[in-house]
Amino acid sequence: LLQSVSQIPIIPECERRRVNAASSTIRGAFVPACTSQGAFEKVQCEPDGRQCFCVDSRGIEIPNSRTRNGQKPDCDSIQSATVPKTKECVGAALRGPCSASMNRWYYDEQEAKCRRFTYSGCGGNGNNYETEDACTQRCAPPPMGLPKCEKGESLKTKLGVTVNCAKSDCPSGYKCSIVQQTSVCCPENDKIIGLQTSNPSDVCSMPKERGPCDKYELRFYFNAEVKECKYFFWGGCEGNGNNFEKVEECESACGIAKVKESLPTSTRPTTANNRQPHFRTTQGIRITPGGGVRNEETLAQER
């Protein structure tokens, strides 16, 4: 008896449904198309051929894949497409390979505003929002009532526009934070906050401070005694607000029209014969972290 039971052929699900549909008394009942191995064909069509759609391996219709004009959908592309899980503000509006027509919104970087597009229901990218308000909140917040960081001020461009870190990375010293459903760059250390809250006159009166770290990063500070912007080598962490990446930033902050000191053009330290790290300028001047400046003639005499 067990041997006879084991010999009963197993009918594939697609073939089983075909048999049931053929014996159905319902006129025009859907009859699935099967492969020679008994699996469901990727593309299925209604008996009248006007509507076609994609199915998965179990014969279940894939949402938004149905066409209504008699054309067969591209089921290979539709089966491999996924709905984006992250929201972004970059990239063109992508319709996707499915067949639905949904009103969606995307952020147009050139126009700097959210625009409507038609979404197929699958695939595409993260620049895809169900409503205009959702797109605007994420990518183009209104100019009034901008979100505030927990500490310090959010990063702004030279034009005073708040930087949106959903579109670009935050620079060093800032971290991307979601504030009031908007992505902004907030200060992540006290040094940045000190730069924002201190008056320019207070910053410019601070002493040069290298900090405890061991890097040699070329920076500029305002020397209040001689009233000039001078270069120094920052350790790479801590210090104070009298620390500028560019000499122009120092001049602008402290009201200096011109730097009187010759400045190095290279910012990469070099070492030789276990000597102290130094910077060499195009004029043949070597600058050591201690602040000494020696020309090549002097160095030749030392050798």
UniProtKB/TrEMBL annotation:
Biased composition (Polar residues): 265-285
Entries under SUPFAM superfamilies matching the protein: BPTI-like (SSF57362), Thyroglobulin type-1 domain (SSF57610)
UniProt xrefs under Pfam families: Kunitz_BPTI (PF00014), Thyroglobulin_1 (PF00086)
Keyword tRNA processing among record annotations: no
Keyword Endoplasmic reticulum: no
Region Disordered, residue ranges: 265-303
Biased composition (Basic and acidic residues): 294-303
Matches recorded under CDD domains: Kunitz-type (cd00109), TY (cd00191)
GO molecular function list: serine-type endopeptidase inhibitor activity
SMART domains given in the database record: KU (SM00131), TY (SM00211), WR1 (SM00289)
Entry keyword set: Disulfide bond, Protease inhibitor, Serine protease inhibitor
InterPro entries per the UniProt record, alphabetical: Cys_repeat_1, Kunitz_BPTI, Kunitz_BPTI_sf, Prtase_inh_Kunz-CS, TFPI/VKTCI-like, Thyroglobulin_1, Thyroglobulin_1_sf
Record's protein name: Kunitz/Bovine pancreatic trypsin inhibitor domain protein
Organism: Ancylostoma caninum (Dog hookworm)
